[in-house]
Structure formats: C-alpha cells, structure tokens
Amino acid sequence: MITLKEIKNEIFKKENFYFLIIILLVFSIDRYSKIKIIDNFSETSFYLNNFLNFDLLWNTGIGFGLLSSNTPLLYNLISTIIAFVIIFLIIIGIKSDKFDKTVFSVIIGGALGNFYDRIYYKAVPDFIDLHYNDFHWFTFNVADVFISMGIIVYLFLGVFKKK
Q1: Could you say which of 30, 117, 126, 129 is catalytic?
Q2: What angle do CA 87, 99, 23 make, to 5 degrees?
Q3: Model-wide pTM > 0.90
Q4: Residue 144 included in any domain
C-alpha cells in the first residue's frame, strides 16, 4: 500500500514538475477554448464547414452526455466519483514511468478542466459538433479531446508495450 509520505516524496521530485506543466497547459488550453465559446456563442451556432459547427450545449452528465440528469443528488454523486477518479489517476501517474506520466498528465489536465466546469458552472460546456449530413457525433469540448487522446494512446501502448 502506498503511504502518504511516499506520495509526498514522489510529488515533489523534479521530474514531476514537467508533468505538472503539461497538466496546467492542457487545463489552460481547455479553459481558454471554453471561455471564448461561452463569451461568443452562447446564443447561436457557428457554422464552420460541412463537417464542423460550434454549438454550445451544457452537459450535466459524464462524457458525451451520458447519465445527464437534473437531479442534484445524481449530479453530486457523479461529481464525487469523478473527483476520486482524478485523485486515483494522479496517484497512478506519480508512480508511472515518464512516458505513462505524460499520457496521464494529458488525461488529468482534461479531466480537471471538465471537473472545474462541473464545480463552477454546475455543467460542462460542450461545443464541438462533428457531423456528416444528418449524422452528428456527440457534442464535446477540448478537454474531451485530450482525455480521449490520452486514453487511446494508453490503451494502444498497453497492447504493444513489452512487459
């Protein structure tokens, strides 16, 4: 079992500072994109091309609108679970090798961006609308892109990484 002292010693290693920068960079990119969208597109959709629109939607669920609900109890339960998952990812990230730390940093940065919105706005602003003709993918945001990329890279490496 990992002790609190071990976690503290790991967190303050010099190499972990670089991963903190990655987390803050991902978080900042996400915050910037959401602030720009909230300030400029709250009333209308913005057509970019035949495949991409910006359309602000407020998501009270988890990724891609799953488990959306207006019930405060469910919202708070989901938010609490997300907080524990983020803490768990931080602990695992601290104990990982450098490449895995980079991947976890990207995931954590995106997760913190969405968690911040859950606390501040009581919903996550989703605005990227990918579509082809009448088929629309779930509306998502920049944090979701970073989280998804991190998970895909982690799973891909898990399949091909030598044990």
Answers
A1: 126
A2: 45
A3: no
A4: yes
Which amino acid, one-letter code, is at 112?
L
Based on the residue annotation, tell me whether 55 is a catalytic residue of this protein.
no
Evaluate whether residue 9 is within a structural domain: no
For residue 116, tell me if it sits in a domain: yes
Determine whether 26 is exposed, middle or buried from the number of CB atoms within 10 Å of its CB (0-12, 13-18, 19+). Answer: buried
Q: What does the pLDDT read at residue 129?
A: 87
**Burial bucket for residue 138 (CB in 10 Å: 0-12, 13-18, 19+):** middle
Per-residue confidence (pLDDT) for residue 96, from 0 to 100: 87
For residue 58, give the nearest of 104, 119, 123 by alpha carbon.
Answer: 123
**Residues of the domain holding 37:** 16-160
Question: Which tokens in the block code for residue 87?
Answer: 């803490």
Run means of pLDDT, 10 residues per run, the chain, 163 residues: 69 80 96 92 70 86 65 85 93 88 96 96 90 83 95 89 65
pLDDT at 85: 94
Query: Of the listed 30, 117, 129, 144, which one is catalytic?
Result: 144
Q: Which amino acid belongs to residue 53?
A: N
Read off φ and ψ for residue 132, nearest 5 degrees: -140, 115
Specify the number of domains making up the chain: 1
Residue 69 lies in a domain: yes
- Among this protein's residues, is 117 annotated catalytic? no
